[in-house]
Design goal:
The complex is a heterodimer. Chain A is an alpha/beta fold. Chain A has 13 helices and twelve strands. In chain A, the strands form two sheets. In chain A, strands 1, 5, 6, 7, 8, 9, 10, 11 and 12 form a nine-stranded mixed beta sheet that branches. In chain A, strands 2-4-3 form a three-stranded antiparallel beta sheet. In chain A, helix 10 packs parallel to helix 11. Chain A is globular and about 70 Å long. The N terminus of chain A is likely disordered. Chain B is mainly alpha-helical. Chain B has a two-stranded antiparallel sheet with strand order 1-2. In chain B, a hairpin with a 5-residue loop joins strand 1 and strand 2. In chain B, helix 6 runs parallel beside helix 8 and helix 21 packs antiparallel against helix 22. Chain B is globular. The chains are: A alpha/beta, B mainly alpha.
């Protein structure tokens, strides 16, 4: 009886909530939405072959080192060849869906980009890229969480500021600031006695769990209200089948729902092509097809919002410049990152070190001429508007060497 | 965040205060109230089952603890009979076959671990196996690690949890799983390949670490799959092209396994420890082997101790002696055990007593654990419910409290993936964190509530709830409650 009465009071409170007495952070988040920008980080786990993704077709050594897996120079092969960007670099032909973004100057590329640490271990290199402290394993939090933490003033606890559409919280978003990792918006809901669970957490004297519980139910309610109906992407937009396309659609949905989203993260794997990598067709071509169709769909689906959005792609390291004996590539060093958005400075950025014998890193790999943190920190300052002072907290131990210039003034 | 820190501070203050109060009245352990017994059960086991409190009361808490500290005295055949069969590796070298095998292997081992935690009577042993595996974490999806996992937990971790730390450390240092995971298997004297030019970093900001060149691992490369899915296995053989020093193991040995990150070692110590372990590798049959040709024979100074040139394999043994008996190691291990068993911020006086016990007994882990679980700080009211359960602790304690009959634990393997603690799949060498800040999150709580609802509904495959189980809604609220997330 007592329980019933409390439940009734609780549903009364929920009714008030729907009448506009929303938790204070929601109001603040809505107010801040105008000035807050969106960053979408996409991790290609497994080390994509950047040399076959963004093809240096003007570098003769590329063809010398890859007799069977090189992507032909633009227009050279009827079966498929690189899509020229600037006379020196080209896109893998499977990346044709991104060509319109290049044409309308919404795509920037940083080549020969990577880590100052030389590890060729996937797990160390991913860890370093996500903590953004290469060589330092003791770092507990990720750079995206540090961004949320450093810019949390006045926004209260809104776990929807940082959302990973992923099964577990990625290292990039781990840390003290509230953030969510969700398989999908539909999955993020309490099945069964939600009201009774909420009452338990709300009434608990355990402050830590009570706060986290309140975050959960508040986020759930926001999502039900803002993204409760089945999602329909913008007209003509078709995401690729599979978890990557689904995740990107969820990100677009959250971005459009005005829930205070500032940082979104997702990932796709299976880039580790030691054997039979393929060239214009084959394994890498198939992966790049899904990847590119997904990115193009997200950019199209965001529509006007792309103007306030930066999508950045990353992978832990590149692959060896020369193909190996199995028609694949082994672990290497420098790689390419893509930056897509309304205010990017289109072009292929970064110094090209060349693939000649004397220029390769440790005699075998594309050298790194741009620290990946140069790209991250430029996005965080020039796009997200973070002060230089806060940047040093987001990238501890890092001093900006160069600004790659991927974001336009 | 501020609130969370403040709460942690309050807890720490409360703990310190009550520990001081408790010190003066170290109670007779035969006269424990049921709340105390419940607390001890919740921390020393994976959660009290129905009847456990009565059992401990009738045995006497001290006698029961003593038995848990000597697991060989406990008949555990009933739990062992429940364990899933571990499959032997396929005889051929077909890549697909090996990959599928490795995936099944991890699933079987995870089931094995869950079943032991749920049903073994040697509960403290299993709690400590979980602790020490995590301390000496390896990642199943890194190359061949999964192949070496069954023996790693069975022969390296479990037999040594009540042993001397030095013995556990040596078993670990010589285990193929660790040798592979932290790359020591291919670490070799740099003199072996003076012409490679790899000691000449070309990229700025490099200085600290010496570059390494990875030899190709026969048949597998150093492939790991993305997304932490299935590991890719291969038949092992000794590294033929190992060249150059690899500091990975040397660094983690000091930072994580022994002294701790603030333990007072230098980069030069890391290099010299790594040099001492060159040649500690894995043979063709997947066993530890010392290969003199890979060993750096020069003199090394480690933490102020000179290791004379030409010591061969003994040099690594000497390093283990030095680090195992180092006072920073005693403190580091005592702190971690107290953090696991007592509180996220364990009372410093307790840590100091446990460290002293470590030093006085030359690292007798049974004595260190005993010091902690019989301490007034552990038994103090402030320690009760001070720990937030890891996902593993949550799902196992839920099964134990319901008395559920689990004939197939694979559904829980999946639950642990959803909760962010996939077993054997923790990538970094730090292992999973054991403190509330790592596990308390909005998304995590939602998944915990849904797990509670699913388990209580009786619809989890391979799980049968006993007759007389409370109604599903009531049980779900209990397992999903804030109180049940703690122990």
């Amino acid at each position: 009886m007592h329980m019933n009465r409390r439940l009734f009071l609780k549903s009364g409170a929920m009714a008030m909530l729907s009448l506009g007495f929303a938790p204070s952070f929601l109001g603040r988040a809505a107010a801040a939405a105008a000035r807050r920008k969106l960053l979408v980080a996409i991790f290609q786990r497994g080390a994509v072959d950047g040399l076959n993704m963004i093809v240096p077709h003007g570098d003769a050594d590329y063809y010398r080192l890859r007799p069977t897996i090189a992507i032909p120079r633009p227009g050279r092969d009827p079966m498929g060849s690189a899509i020229d960007l600037d006379g020196f670099f080209g896109l893998h032909p499977s990346m044709a869906p991104l060509e319109p973004l290049w044409s309308n100057r919404s795509l920037a590329i940083v080549h020969a980009c990577g880590s100052p640490d030389n590890t060729r271990s996937h797990f160390d290199a991913q860890d370093y890229m996500e903590s953004a402290t290469p060589g330092v394993k003791a770092t507990r939090d990720g750079w995206l969480n540090r961004y949320l933490h450093a810019t949390a003033d006045g926004l209260g606890r809104n776990p929807l500021r940082g959302v990973a559409v992923a099964r577990t919280m990625p290292r990039s978003l781990e840390g003290p600031a509230p953030a969510l990792a969700i398989g999908s918006i539909e999955e993020f809901g309490v099945r069964g006695a939600a009201a009774a669970f909420e009452e338990q957490y709300d009434g608990s004297s355990d402050r830590l769990l009570s706060a986290a519980g309140n975050d959960a139910f508040a986020a759930m309610r926001t999502l039900q209200r803002a993204a409760g109906t089945p999602y329909r992407p913008a007209a003509g937009v078709q995401y690729p089948n599979g978890p990557f396309g689904k995740a990107l659609a969820e990100i677009a949905r959250l971005a459009k729902a005005d829930v205070g989203l500032e940082v979104a993260f997702t990932e796709l794997g299976n880039w580790d092509h030691h054997v039979n990598e393929g060239a214009v067709t084959g394994q890498i071509a198939n992966r790049l097809d899904e990847f590119s169709r997904g990115l193009a769909a997200l950019a199209a689906d965001l529509g006007d919002r792309l103007a306030d959005t930066v999508i950045v792609t990353m992978s832990e390291f590149g692959r060896a410049a020369a193909e190996n004996g199995n028609g694949g590539t082994d672990h290497g060093h420098g790689n390419a990152m893509m930056v897509i958005g309304g205010n990017v400075r289109s072009g292929v950025h970064g110094a090209w070190p060349g693939l000649g014998d004397a220029h390769r890193f440790e005699g075998r790999d594309l050298a790194v001429t741009t620290d990946f943190r140069d790209v991250f920190s430029e996005i965080v300052t020039a796009h997200m508007g973070v002060s230089r002072d806060a940047v040093s907290r987001i990238f501890p131990g890092y001093q900006a060497m160069t600004t790659p210039g991927v974001i336009s003034g | 965040m501020i609130r969370r820190r403040f709460t942690a501070l309050l807890v720490a203050i409360a703990l310190a205060a009550s520990a001081a109060a408790a010190e003066s009245r170290i109670p007779n352990s035969e006269s424990r109230d049921d709340d105390t017994i419940s607390h001890v059960l919740n921390r020393v086991t994976f959660g009290a089952r129905t009847g456990d409190v009565d059992l401990v009361r009738s045995m006497g808490l001290a006698a029961w603890l003593d038995q848990q500290l000597h697991p060989s005295r406990i008949d555990d055949r009933a739990a062992e009979a429940r364990l899933p069969q571990v499959e032997s590796p396929p005889s051929g070298a077909d890549q697909q076959e090996l990959r599928r095998f490795a995936r099944r292997q991890v699933e079987t081992l995870a089931s094995d671990k869950l079943v032991r935690a749920m049903y073994s009577e040697r509960q403290l042993q299993e709690v400590l196996v979980d602790f020490w595996f995590n301390h000496f974490n390896v990642y199943a999806a890194k190359g061949r690690t999964a192949m070496y996992l069954p023996e790693y937990e069975r022969d390296v971790i479990r037999p040594h949890v009540f042993d001397r730390f030095r013995d556990l450390l040596e078993a670990d240092a010589k285990s193929p799983a660790m040798l592979f995971y932290l790359d020591n298997w291919m670490s070799a004297t740099p003199d072996r390949d003076p012409g490679s030019g790899i000691r000449d970093p070309k990229v700025r900001g490099f200085g600290v670490r010496r570059p390494r060149r990875l030899p190709r691992i026969p048949g597998v490369g150093s492939r790991i799959p993305a997304n932490g899915s299935a590991p890719i296995a291969a038949n092992g053989s000794a590294p033929k092209r190992a060249r150059g020093l690899n500091e990975n193991y040397g660094r983690e040995l000091l930072e994580l396994h022994t002294l701790g990150v603030d333990g007072g070692y230098t980069q030069q110590d890391v290099v010299n420890v790594a040099r001492a372990f060159t040649g500690w590798t894995i043979d063709r049959d997947g066993r530890f082997r010392f290969v003199p040709a890979l060993h750096d024979a020069g003199e090394k100074i480690v933490l102020g101790h000179t290791i004379k040139a030409g010591g061969g394999m003994d040099e690594g043994e000497k390093v283990l002696d030095i680090v195992a008996s180092h006072p920073a190691t005693a403190h580091h291990i005592a702190f971690e055990l107290a953090q696991r068993l007592v509180a996220d911020d364990p009372p410093p006086a307790l840590v100091e007593r446990a460290a002293a016990r470590f030093r006085d007994t030359r690292g007798d882990l049974r004595e260190v654990v005993k010091t902690i679980v019989t301490s007034p700080e552990f038994l103090a009211p402030a320690a009760r419910g001070a720990k937030f359960k890891t996902p593993f602790e949550l799902v196992v304690s839920a099964v134990r409290t319901t008395g559920a009959e689990v004939s197939d634990a694979r559904a829980f393997v999946q639950t642990l993936q959803q909760l962010g603690e996939p077993l054997y799949m923790c990538q970094p060498p730090t292992g999973y964190k054991d403190t509330a800040d790592a596990w308390v999150s909005a998304g995590g709580l939602v998944t915990r509530m849904n797990f509670a609802t699913r388990l209580s509904s009786g619809n989890m495959p391979g799980v049968t709830l006993p007759a007389g189980t409370p109604p599903a809604g009531e049980l779900a609220l209990r397992i999903g409650s804030p109180e049940f997330q703690r122990h």
